[in-house]
Amino acid sequence: MAECKGCTESVHMTPEEIAKVFGETIRVKNVKLATEAEYERRMSECRKCDAFQFGTTCRWCGCLMDIKAKLEKANCPSPGGSRW
Ligand code: SF4
Question: What InterPro entries does the record point to (predicted)?
């Protein structure tokens, strides 16, 4: 599968960088979080998915999945059918 347009070294993020972005997301928005079990279930699906790139990012939405999978109302955008 081809990589995202424009995906280069700049899209690679460390777990520490992702944790910082997640903290900023929670501060800025009043969002509800998924349960830990639901987060793990979602990430398990992503890790098995061909669209999961760089160990961090969904090819279809460009989101950092460590963050998106924690948001209660988020869903998988796969055009072949949502996986979660
Ligand atoms: S298509 Fe769905 S399962 Fe695959 S990486 Fe994106 S959100 Fe995760």
Answer: DUF6171
